[in-house]
Design a protein that fits this description.
single chain, Peroxisomal Thiolase, Chain A, domain 1, 2 domains, 10 helices, 32% helix, 25% strand, binds oxa(dethia)-CoA
């Protein structure tokens, strides 16, 4: 049988500080009722502390993963980090994570595909394992969104939070693990969701800081429309091409951007809410962290052979879906 890449351990980390809707109501003109009914979010976690970045979230998740698998950091061959909030513009946050955890035999690099980054990275990582070139590959999805959120903008600050997770991929000879994936992107969506300054087109200047251009800019309604259609369509497409019906699926693991987008996706797939991993109410949208954090929290409820579908939509636009047969008990 063809070798597949299977998740053999999951780690996660969320910072201690809780930013709830009540606190946000003191910061911007909003209400708990508006936030919960429009997004499903009650609270998010924030990484507090001078000099701490995305790698500090990732390191905790990777240590948790290593601990669960019972291996040392020197056994990691490759570490890919999906993030939109790298510690620095360069070098890659993956390298910083490797250094901090002691993954001295690994090489690393980052992937930026906005909120779809984790699933894009997972598919990329799987190719190394399937081909046999690398045995133990870690995929991290982590973001310190509080570093690029404008806490005077009520349309974005209510959504995002900090957190991250990590999975270990190893080869499987029983057909378990990543079975299929579909990934898509459409750069014309850039206008609706981006960070205006800090890149090569508009490097940081006193003016860009004054104009608050180093924060997430989002035209929520437009993004919402594209997200609902595309996340549902791609999830349905992966089911169809693998002859899966709603009843066959143990869990949908959706990117946690808005509960209404998740509900629409589940409905299109014909699966009930009891089969949808949902923690948006506690963590908000942690961008690359959402999907691995769900896997981390639900891993004890999953059984070997369970069919699960990961689905994401994000800035870029980027979107996609992955079909996995769970390999752990
Ligand atoms: O993860 C990456 C991809 N991102 C997404 O998938 C996010 C997709 N978009 C969304 O989740 C939603 O569009 C938001 C949650 C961002 C906004 O919800 P919405 O239902 O689309 O609201 P809206 O932007 O259409 O705004 C409706 C009204 C506006 O007031 P008027 O113009 O009707 O008077 C807004 O000014 O709600 C107002 N509003 C707020 N009111 C209270 C916007 N934000 C807030 C707020 N509190 N925080």
């Amino acid at each position: 049988m063809k070798k597949t890449a299977a998740i053999t351990a999951v780690g996660g980390y969320t910072p201690d500080y809780i930013l709830d809707n009540q606190e946000l109501m003191k910061m911007v003109d909003t209400t708990d009722e508006w936030i919960t009914t429009r997004t499903g979010i009650n609270e998010r976690r924030i990484l507090k502390g001078e000099g701490l970045g995305t790698s500090d979230i990732a390191v905790e998740a990777v240590k948790d993963l290593l601990n669960q698998r019972g291996i040392g950091p020197e056994e990691i061959d490759l570490l890919i980090c999906a993030t939109v909030t790298p510690d620095l513009v360069f070098p890659a946050t993956a390298n910083i994570i490797c250094d901090k955890v002691g993954a001295v035999n690994a090489f690393g690099y980052d992937i930026n595909a906005a909120c779809s980054g984790f699933i894009f990275a997972l598919t990329t990582a799987a190719k190394y394992v399937e081909s046999g070139t690398h045995k133990k590959v870690v995929v991290v999805g982590a973001d310190k969104m509080s570093s690029i959120v404008d806490y005077t903008d009520r349309t974005t600050c209510i959504i995002f939070g900090d957190g991250g997770g990590a999975v270990l991929l190893e080869e499987n000879e029983d057909g378990l693990g990543i079975v299929d994936s579909i990934h898509k992107s459409d750069g014309s969506g850039k206008v609706f969701l981006h960070q205006k300054a800090g890149g090569s087109v508009k490097p940081a200047s006193i003016q860009t800081v004054t104009d608050r251009e180093h924060f997430v800019y989002q035209e929520g309604k437009s993004v919402f429309k594209f997200a609902v259609t595309n996340m549902a369509d791609v999830s349905f497409e992966i089911m169809e091409r693998n002859n899966l019906k709603g009843d066959d699926i143990a869990y949908l693991v959706p990117h946690q951007a808005n509960k209404r987008i998740i509900d629409a996706t589940a409905k299109r797939m014909g699966i009930g809410e009891e089969k949808v991993m949902l923690n948006i109410q506690r963590y908000g949208n942690t961008t690359n962290g959402t999907i691995p954090l769900c896997l981390w929290e639900w891993q004890d409820k999953l059984h070997k052979g369970d069919k699960i579908i990961l689905a994401a939509f994000g800035g870029g636009f980027t979107w996609g879906s992955i079909y996995i047969k769970w390999a752990l008990n």
